């Protein structure tokens, strides 16, 4: 079978016609030419008008005031509050057998010396016991004197043969027994006198009386509790509550200024002890500030303290430059491409020059001083440099 005979001769002639083939390719060539023209137009537009567009965008960017804060030397000041207490509290109670209180000689707010009698207790029975023992001492001393005299006379008769050696030994033993009985009686008398002396309530140390809890006529024993409370030498302290970071920045011996609540007095104190532990709930510890006696200091009252914890080189910014959110404190800095970048910082003490930034800045950055709350990270700005934070 001849397949060529199945195709019409007219179609064969059109397929072989070069003119027809060119006509079929013409739409494709036109489409390609249009695409090339559009591409060239786009490139030309960007080349001639792109830079001008960037300038227009930049001219529309917000203007912000920036400053390179540098570093300043400031004195770190820690503000704290706490409770006033006696530096060394001395509770005074009964040390003897006790009894009925006959007299109380001091009251709260008085000063006492070491060994001073603060209260006395009835000792009528104990005095009679002491008198009886004193008489026993007298009897024992008389017996000793007699035994010694008998021994001395017998010793003079030994050489004459009137007294035997056995008699001398017996008289010597009698003398020694009398001496021993005298020592026992004397010891008993001394013990009774010591017990009687302990009936008096005396000040173990010199100090300031904080509390009096006893009255004449009251019966007291060793279970009666604290009768008097003393502040040794009248010395007080402020138990200042400080956070972990502040405790790490102070040391023993640092000078402080303490102001009792309700007064305008500034008392000079000194940190004498720093708590070795931190409360796991409040994350705070105690710094104890030693203070001399002053009528404005009342144990149990509150006071505030300013603790100078040394100097440091830090960046200082006005309050307007600092922002806060759930992540903490931050500022905006402007990079070389004039885009605002968020920078997290740690702030420190407030000074007359501004707020110190203890971490996050090296001082050379261009920090946005105002309007930071209206910026977004990555936003293009027009920076206006200000040399000093307090300048115009």
UniProtKB/TrEMBL annotation:
Keywords: Coiled coil, Membrane, Transmembrane, Transmembrane helix
Record domain CusB-like beta-barrel: where: 238-309
Parts of the chain that traverse the membrane: 28-48
Domain YknX-like C-terminal permuted SH3-like stretches: 315-382
InterPro entries: Beta-barrel_RND_2, BSH_CzcB-like, RND_pump_MFP, YknX-like_C
Aminoacyl-tRNA synthetase among keywords: no
Alphabetized Gene3D superfamilies for the sequence: 2.40.30.170, 2.40.420.20, 2.40.50.100, Helix hairpin bin
Domain of life: Bacteria
Coiled-coil portions: 168-202
Pfam families, A to Z: Beta-barrel_RND_2, BSH_CzcB, YknX_C
All copies of domain CzcB-like barrel-sandwich hybrid, residue ranges: 98-226
Family listed: Belongs to the membrane fusion protein (MFP) (TC 8.A.1) family.
NCBIfam families per UniProt: RND_mfp (TIGR01730)
Protein name per Swiss-Prot or TrEMBL: Efflux RND transporter periplasmic adaptor subunit
Native source species: Parasphingorhabdus flavimaris
């Amino acid at each position: 079978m001849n397949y060529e005979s199945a195709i019409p001769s007219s179609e064969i002639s059109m397929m072989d016609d070069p003119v027809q083939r060119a006509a079929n390719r013409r739409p494709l060539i036109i489409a390609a030419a249009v695409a090339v023209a559009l591409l060239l137009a786009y490139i030309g537009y960007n080349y001639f008008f792109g830079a001008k567009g960037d300038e227009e965008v930049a001219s529309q960017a917000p203007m912000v005031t920036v400053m390179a804060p540098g570093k300043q030397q400031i004195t770190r000041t820690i503000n704290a509050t706490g409770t006033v207490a006696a530096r060394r509290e001395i509770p005074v109670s009964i040390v003897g057998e006790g009894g009925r209180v006959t007299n109380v000689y001091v009251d709260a707010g008085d000063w006492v010396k070491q060994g001073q009698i603060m209260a006395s207790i009835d000792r009528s029975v104990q005095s009679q016991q002491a008198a009886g023992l004193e008489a026993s001492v007298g009897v024992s001393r008389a017996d000793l004197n007699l035994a010694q005299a008998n021994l001395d006379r017998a010793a003079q008769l030994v050489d004459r043969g009137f007294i035997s050696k056995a008699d001398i030994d017996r008289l010597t033993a009698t003398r020694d027994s009398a001496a021993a009985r005298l020592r026992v009686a004397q010891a008993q008398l001394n013990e009774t006198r010591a017990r009687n002396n302990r009936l008096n309530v005396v000040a173990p140390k010199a100090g300031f009386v904080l509390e009096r809890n006893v009255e004449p006529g009251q019966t007291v024993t060793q279970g009666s509790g604290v009768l008097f409370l003393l502040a040794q030498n009248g010395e007080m302290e402020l138990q200042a509550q400080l956070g972990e970071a502040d405790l790490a920045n102070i040391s023993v011996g640092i000078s402080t200024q303490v102001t009792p609540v309700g007064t305008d007095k500034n008392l000079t104190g000194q940190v004498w002890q720093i708590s070795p532990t931190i409360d796991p709930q409040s994350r705070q510890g105690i710094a104890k500030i030693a203070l001399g006696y002053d009528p404005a200091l009342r144990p149990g009252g509150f006071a505030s303290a300013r603790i100078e914890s040394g100097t440091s080189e830090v960046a200082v910014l006005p309050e307007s430059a600092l922002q806060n959110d759930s992540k903490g404190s931050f500022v905006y800095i402007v990079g070389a491409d004039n885009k605002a970048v968020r920078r997290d910082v740690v702030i420190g003490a407030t000074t007359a020059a501004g707020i110190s930034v203890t971490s996050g800045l090296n001082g050379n950055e261009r920090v946005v001083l105002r309007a930071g709350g209206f910026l977004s990270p990555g936003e293009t700005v027009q920076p206006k440099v200000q040399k000093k934070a307090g300048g115009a």
